[in-house]
Design brief:
Layout (H helix, E strand, L loop, with lengths): L19 E3 L4 E3 L2 E6 L5 E3 L8 E5 L4 E7 L2 E8 L4 E6 L8 E6 L2 E8 L2 E9 L10 E5 L8 E9 L11 E11 L2 E8 L2 H4 L2 E7 L8 E6 L3 E8 L3 E9 L14 E8 L2 E8 L2 E8 L2 E8 L5 E5 L8 E5 L3 E7 L2 E8 L5 E7 L8 E6 L3 E7 L2
Antiparallel strand pairs: 1-7, 2-3, 3-30, 4-5, 5-6, 6-7, 8-9, 9-10, 10-11, 12-13, 13-14, 14-15, 16-17, 17-18, 18-19, 20-21, 21-22, 22-23, 24-25, 25-26, 26-27, 28-29, 29-30
């Protein structure tokens, strides 16, 4: 990804192995056991639709399913195409979860059925720029009962391969399977609205039973995209998180995450210039709550302690955990790492139902954290 407006990137580690990797000696940091996970940061999902969530990775040339057995990670090739930006989604009316990702401007679908893996090119993105990274998000913004893929990339209105200087602009679109085919609908392609966007999140921020698309730019403008059956897509400003100054931008800029913490009450979490905020939609208005005086570069929600409690995890050089206690947020863990944390994934990556935290560092690699009990 070369343009700053696309915040989320997939970082890949290459591990030379043709089978499995012996588990390293387990270390301990505070209340956590830590293991080295010698692969790229995983996507954790139930792609076999058997009730077991497993780990899936891209290693720059193929897609693999990772299985943890007898203290070893077993690496199984499921696709020889270099598919990136992996997500899990149920995009048909069949209740089946599949893998989706992009390669060379095309969207691919990976399905497990009858003990076999199949790979299909389902959609060629029109006029996407060559070598452009495509961010993919998942949600049901139309409340239809099935999920769509939301794409964020740089494209043109004409074919860049035949026009010398095409009109290049950022695109936010919805890719859905309707009427027996895949259709891409443009949500936004305004240069002014998308050029300075640094992070995107999809979730039910209003707790209305459907998903919304949230974007935040380097001027700290937090916006929401919603779909109306009669009039289509609408852009609404949630908040100007910091006073707007068109002459000042902040990079790498703010971060956002939409995650349910209390009684299925989803919130929007925003990191904004040394202040960490939570936004809740209550009584038809957005209310803002201060979590702390810090500006994490990465925000994720999850059940990191495997105790059924949703918490917020954020990181820069260290991993911080925040827990909501009755009426306020409390920092409940601080795990010191050796290097800047680039990505966080939370889930039962070993397929055993135990929630763990996966951290990626550019030079140190990926680590797996298990809470002590």
């Amino acid at each position: 990804m070369t343009n700053k407006s696309f915040k989320i990137i997939l970082i890949v580690l290459i591990f030379l192995s043709n089978g499995c990797e012996e588990a390293t000696n387990q270390l301990s940091i505070g209340d956590w056991y830590i293991d080295r996970y010698n692969y790229s940061i995983p996507l954790i999902a139930d792609i076999r639709n058997d009730g077991i969530e497993r780990s899936y990775i891209n290693d720059e040339s193929a897609v693999y399913e990772m299985t943890y057995e007898n203290g070893k990670w077993i690496k199984t090739n499921i696709c020889d195409t270099d598919i990136n930006s992996l997500v899990a989604a149920c995009c048909y009316h069949d209740g089946v979860t599949r893998l989706y990702g992009f390669y060379d401007g095309n969207i691919y679908e990976i399905e497990y059925s009858g003990d076999n893996w199949s790979v299909e090119l389902i959609y060629a993105i029109h006029y996407v720029l060559p070598d452009t990274w495509v961010n993919i998000f998942v949600g049901d913004s139309r409340n239809e009962g099935f999920e769509s893929l939301y794409l964020n990339y740089y494209g043109t209105d004409t074919n860049p391969m035949v026009q010398w200087e095409p009109d290049v602009h950022p695109v936010l679109s919805e890719l859905s399977f309707r009427n027996g085919k895949w259709e891409e609908n443009i949500i936004e392609n305004s240069f002014s609205n998308l050029e300075t966007v640094v992070d995107i999140a999809v979730g039910d921020g209003r707790v209305e039973g459907k998903d919304y698309i949230y974007v935040i730019d380097c001027y700290f403008t937090l916006a929401e995209y919603s779909y109306d059956t009669g009039s289509g897509w609408h852009r609404t400003i949630v908040d100007q998180v910091l006073p707007l100054d068109p002459y000042v931008t902040y990079f790498p800029g703010p971060n956002i995450e939409v995650y349910p913490v209390l009684d299925n009450q989803s919130s929007i979490f925003v990191s904004a210039f040394e202040i960490f905020w939570e936004y809740r939609y209550q009584n038809n208005i957005w209310r803002r709550y201060k979590i702390g005086d810090l500006a994490p570069d990465l925000i994720r929600g999850g059940i990191g302690r495997n105790d059924g409690i949703n918490r917020i995890y954020c990181a820069a050089e260290d991993l911080l955990e925040f827990t909501y206690n009755n009426s306020s947020w409390e920092k409940t863990a601080h795990v010191t790492m050796k290097e800047f944390i680039k990505d966080i994934v939370i889930g039962p990556g070993r397929g055993d139902g135990i929630q763990r935290i996966y951290l990626y560092q550019e030079n140190q690699g990926t680590f797996e954290l298990t809470y002590k009990y």
